[in-house]
Specification:
209 residues, alpha/beta, globular
Amino acid sequence: MSRIIAGAAGGTPLSAVPGSLTRPTTDRVKEALFSRLDAFDVIAGARVLDLYAGSGSLGVESGSRGAQTVDLVEFDAKASAVCQRNADLINGVVGRKVVTVHRSKVEPFLDRAALTDVWDLVFLDPPYPLEEAALAAVLNKLTAHLAPAAVVVVERSSRSPEPQWPGSLARFAEKKYGETRLWFAEPFVPDAIDGDDVPAVAEPDGSGY
């Protein structure tokens, strides 16, 4: 059973989506991912967006660890109901509404988002069958809603190719965990090409995550 790993609700079991509809992130991968994000110092106080949320485990983990707001986007009725149960759990522990569930497909959600809707940390864990062109279209829509120092995390099969990043996103790290590969990207800053004045997010010391 998946659980919240750390933070205000650390150790609390999470509800899971029944059946094989979703492919939840394993606790091993989630723990490694959040260790890296902690090293990047991007969680505390962040505005977090979890697209293709499934059970919402990545988003609610962020809420447990001090994110300011978390938006879970999931279209399937059963999965969004599980998202809501897990959101209610976190909101109850922290004593305020940190996590909000949106039952919506991803592209329409981004199309409806106001220009003032901006996120600091974004998770995308789309179904493996999602075509690369469809993922690229989502990433392109997402770029208008990223804070300048945002981090985007894409979870894919280790057999999938690197995502087709739009020109306004640049990959700065990737890591393979068995059948899962995580890709990390940030907003592309053209002025940083020939200078060191705008550094990329620093890799944590060591590669043991």
